[in-house]
From TrEMBL:
Protein name: Peroxiredoxin family protein
Domain of life of the source: Bacteria
Pfam families: DrsE_2
Length: 131
């Protein structure tokens, strides 16, 4: 069995963020090598400003109170936890180019690469997940 977990984060909502970072941090905490490929709206999860205002789906605003009551970490806190656990963050170069973004728009410590960069990591990962 592989010791790698590969995750594609292509959506930028709160529920997607919690799925991505919960799986990533749990895997990293159990000694797995983890990489997350952030593309399209998923880039918001590591964008310096956007990560502080990740939206809840319309009509689901009541979850904000539930997250607070349950002491669920914020998205920036989860990002920091994942980085502390050694999770590798790869920002999609193509998507960044399309959106007019540069590495400076994102948190420190990310790698910028294309699909080939991610596929090189993911080729022997098990599981590979997409959110």
């Amino acid at each position: 069995m592989s010791n790698k977990v590969a995750i594609i984060a292509s959506n930028g909502g709160v529920f997607d963020a919690y799925k991505v970072f919960n799986i990533a941090t749990a895997a990293a905490a159990t000694e797995k090598e983890v990489a997350i490929f952030f593309t399209f709206e998923g880039l918001n999860l590591i964008h310096k400003q956007a990560m502080h205002a990740v939206p809840l789906p319309e009509g689901k605003e009541h979850f904000a109170e539930g997250f607070a009551k349950a002491n669920v970490p914020s998205i920036p806190q989860l990002v920091e936890m994942a980085q502390e656990l050694g999770v590798k963050f790869i920002g999609c170069q193509m998507t960044m180019d399309v959106m007019g973004l540069t590495k400076d728009d994102f948190i420190d410590g990310i790698e910028v690469g294309g699909a080939v960069t991610f596929l090189e990591f993911a080729k022997d990962a098990s599981p590979t997940l997409t959110f």
